[in-house]
Amino acid sequence: MNICLYYQSGGNNHMKPIRSLDICKTFIECQNLRPQDLTAPPLPVVTISRATGARGVTISDLLCEYLQSNEPEPTPPWTVFDRNLIEQVVADHDLPASMAKFMPEDHRPMISSAIEEMLGLHPSPYDQVRQTAETVLRLGHMGRAIIVGRGSQMLLSEMPQVLHVRITGSRNRRAQHLVEYYHLSPAAAIEMLEREDTAKRRYMRAHYHCDIDDPTLYHLVVNTDRLTSEDAATLIGDAVFRLTQRLDAAHHLTTSAGESAEPEPNLTEQAETYHPNPDYVSSETDN
């Protein structure tokens, strides 16, 4: 069974994967239908950390297409989890759909978060991060997921089946992409770039105590100044296929040696090990 749904973008013929909760549900349903053979090798996963304007979302879509088209009948389908990841978190934890807007990839100031939590406007920052962590860990164990952002490179850092990728580029090139993509003025593009990059750095520093730009967190750091989006997707995809070969070889050695499979993980316990610092207070000087 080969499931990968697309829509036609604008006036061109390029087909992009659909991102919606329906596709998330299709992915989960396919996973649930797959025989749960704990002796089978783990399925690969990709985490994508992207600098603003580095074409990370486009590359993630192209990577999904490349993996889907070059793997014989992949079931479950390769699926990109980006903006729809929060929709999946909301569904996993039976939260109201309106909660999605309160879960940006940033750390909200402690005072405003506390007031809104007391008023019942949204879950606490701790609960938001824990619930997101549980969903990311769940997707990591399922396999064939391309997870964009949300600290996934840290949450899944100990899983051998996960390839971690950082997509970046020079400030000027990224700003120029924002000008062209969003039809912004150069000044507005720079402002957007700095605002969003600062938010991502703050999120990682507050919740996972790391520097998002640290190259040692990743298997690959892709410079989009030097590569087209298509070439970047192919580069990452080929690395995924090599990872799959290594996973299969390691699995063969393990089963040949008669070692037993690992037990099912407790995702709630794992998620509890990743949580925001309750004493952290966001500030404009914390860059």
Structure description:
With 287 residues, this protein is an alpha/beta fold. The chain has a single domain (43-255, 268-272), classed as 3-Layer(aba) Sandwich (Rossmann fold), CATH 3.40.50. It has helices spanning 21-33, 56-70, 83-92, 110-118, 125-142, 152-155, 171-182, 186-208, 229-256, 267-272; strands at 6-8, 15-17, 45-50, 79-81, 145-148, 162-168, 220-223. It has a five-stranded parallel sheet, sandwiched between helices. A two-stranded antiparallel ribbon has the order 1-2. Helix 2 crosses helix 9 (229-256) and helix 3 crosses helix 5 (125-142). It is globular. The model is unreliable at 1-16, 95-105, 107-121 and 278-287 (pLDDT under 50).
Topology:
Layout: E1 6-8, E2 15-17, H1 21-33, E3 45-50, H2 56-70, E4 79-81, H3 83-92, H4 110-118, H5 125-142, E5 145-148, H6 152-155, E6 162-168, H7 171-182, H8 186-208, E7 220-223, H9 229-256, H10 267-272
